[in-house]
Structure formats: C-alpha cells, structure tokens
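Input/output pair, single chain:
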Amino acid sequence: MIFFSRYLIKSFFRLKKKKSRFNYREEIYKTAFQHKSYCKTNNNERLEFLGDAILCFVVSEYIYDENKTQKEGYLSKKRAVIVARKHLNMVGKRVINKELLKTKTETISDNIYGNALEALIGAIYIERGIKEVKQFIVDKIINSEFIDELINTDYKSNLQKIIQKNQNDIKYNLTSTKGPEHDKEFYVTLFIDNKQISRAKGRSLKEAEQNAAKKALKSVS
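Output:
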C-alpha cells in the first residue's frame, strides 16, 4: 500500500525537493497552508471546512469500531478529546513545518496550525481519497503522543463528577472575546448554583471552559 503520509512528511513537512514517482497535485497542498490573511480568495478555509467534517467522521467511526461495549457518552467524550482545538493545534505544530505556512499575521498562533491541519486533511481526501486520509488521521491524530496528556486534563469532566454527587448546578458563561479573528481569546466565567466560582481565558471557548474548570476544582475538591 502506498503510505501517503510518509510522502507528505518528506515532500511538504520537511521541504524535501526530491521528486516522487507519483503525480500529486501540488497546488491543493499549497492552498491548504495559505491563511486568509495571506490571500482573501484562494485560502485554506474551504479545505478546512471539508477536513473538519472528514475528521469527525473518521474519528467517530474509529472510536465506534474500537469500543464495542462502551455507551454513547463514553464515545462522545473520547471523540471530543481527539477533535478538540487544543489537540489539533498541538498536532499541527508537530507535523507542519512553519516555513510552509503562508500568512501575513505578525505571529503564527496555535489556531493557525490547527486550522491548517484540518485543511490538509481536506486536501489529502481530494487528492488521495478516503483510504489514505483515514490512515493519516489514525497515525497522526487519533494515535498522537498528546492524547494521554489531554485525557488526564479533562477538568470539565472531573468537575462535573463532583458537582453531580452534590446535586449542584454548573454553568459556563462566555463573558467576552478579545483580539483579531485569527488570534482571538475567549473569557469564561464559571458558576455553581448561580455563584461565581472562577474566571479564565483560552484560545478557544472549550479551552477557556477547561481552564475555568481547573480553577474551580481547587475550590470544590
């Protein structure tokens, strides 16, 4: 079987110039790495949209097949960790060479790497098909080195378990956002029984909620 991700790493991630014996449409991969600040029309947003949908499908199918005795709640939580923005950003930074990213922003935020990773998934699907993109997702994302670390830091789930025991009500409120669209910060306030417990920020809404839950755990545990 042609192991496409190996070619991709050699030819694009590490900027090797050696020609492959396969005829790849190079332009689609260039587009996958072009941020909207670099090009308003031919940027990676459409590929990102496609890649996001493919990623959710492949991860859902994989978890469903690998956890035949688990219920829906477990499957949903495991998928949420894998497709979380924080995880995709971490994987994106690991597999995408900074020199490949085309952007006019002053700094390259973590989200730009994560979005480019989703766009890359869309490009692989178009160029190589579902079989190759599944292999890439399983190898680089589902089985990434960061998964165990992220599972152990699911503060929202840990807090929820404590709150449920005491029959309390928990609520996360998005209070504000700051910064440009490509590098936005989200601010969240956490309430337990309508009492403010903690406030936190993050590069995504989910990350801000996790950070707020982490702070709250120190108060309730």
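Strands lie at 170-178, 185-192, 195-202. The two ends are 51 Å apart (CA to CA).
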